[in-house]
């Protein structure tokens, strides 16, 4: 589904990704761990096409197409979802309006018919209920006045409505208490299917107790330096990244 080959990228002229290669197959969950400044968030932004992140080498193929040749909205329509470490607030725009507009914009780009208001409300209510987000919050401005946990649950609702092929979740466990972590993890697990893949970016092993990955990769100094199974997270928790770097 996703093939990253020798990817190099820089920010403000400073190299951050320095030859990163990674393959994520359909149906798999991959976790990326690494110290601060290793390039984890940069990878997510490069995949999503964020301004200011310049690709200087390598390639990214997503579902057989050149991802880097697409604009950010085209990447979203192609089935890429980015969950932000710090979800932004959008005053004056309700969650329902934002999400329906996004869904129909993607469907239009794919040549699919728009979802009716009634059909969308059914989708949104089901997703909110599954993720434990009171539906009244869907009527409020996007993330405005939401706690950290509510913002992350709201992102999970967005993911369940948009149904991407690949979800890139940048530290989605950040700022979550244990109850919110459990609910968000259930939302991630509910998306698992033979056609869907997830790339989890995290500092901590605790998320991976709930969302057990197929593969864990250690990202250091802009490249993948080690890969392993789910037990690798416990090794890193106990020994730190120095054991990998040694």
UniProtKB/TrEMBL annotation:
Molecular function per GO: ATP binding; ATP hydrolysis activity
InterPro entries: ABC_transporter-like_ATP-bd, FeS-cluster_ATPase_SufC, P-loop_NTPase
Record keyword ATP-binding present: yes
Coiled coil region boundaries: none
Keywords, ordered alphabetically: ATP-binding, Nucleotide-binding
NCBIfam families according to UniProt: sufC
Protein name as catalogued: Fe-S cluster assembly ATPase SufC
Organism annotation: Sandarakinorhabdus cyanobacteriorum
């Amino acid at each position: 589904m996703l093939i990253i080959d020798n990817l190099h990228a820089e920010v403000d002229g400073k190299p951050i990704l320095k030859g990163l290669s990674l393959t994520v197959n359909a149906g798999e969950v991959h976790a990326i761990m690494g110290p601060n400044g290793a390039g984890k968030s940069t990878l997510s932004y490069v995949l999503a096409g964020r301004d200011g992140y310049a690709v200087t080498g390598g390639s990214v193929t997503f579902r057989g197409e050149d991802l880097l040749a697409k604009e950010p909205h085209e990447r979203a329509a192609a089935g890429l979802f980015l969950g932000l470490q710090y979800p932004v607030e959008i005053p004056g725009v309700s969650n329902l309006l934002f999400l329906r507009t996004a869904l129909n914009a993607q469907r239009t780009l794919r040549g699919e018919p728009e979802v009716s208001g009634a059909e969308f409300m059914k989708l949104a209510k089901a997703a909110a209920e599954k993720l434990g987000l009171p539906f009244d919050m869907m009527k409020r401005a996007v993330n405005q006045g939401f706690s950290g946990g509510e913002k992350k649950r709201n992102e999970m609702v967005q993911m369940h409505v948009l149904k991407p092929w690949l979800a890139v979740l940048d530290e989605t466990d950040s700022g979550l208490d244990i109850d919110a972590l459990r609910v968000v993890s259930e939302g991630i697990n509910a998306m698992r299917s033979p056609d869907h893949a997830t790339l989890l970016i995290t500092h901590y092993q605790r998320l991976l107790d709930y969302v057990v990955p197929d593969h864990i990769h250690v990202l250091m100094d802009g490249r993948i330096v080690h890969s392993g199974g789910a037990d690798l997270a416990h090794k890193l928790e106990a020994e730190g990244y120095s054991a990998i770097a040694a």
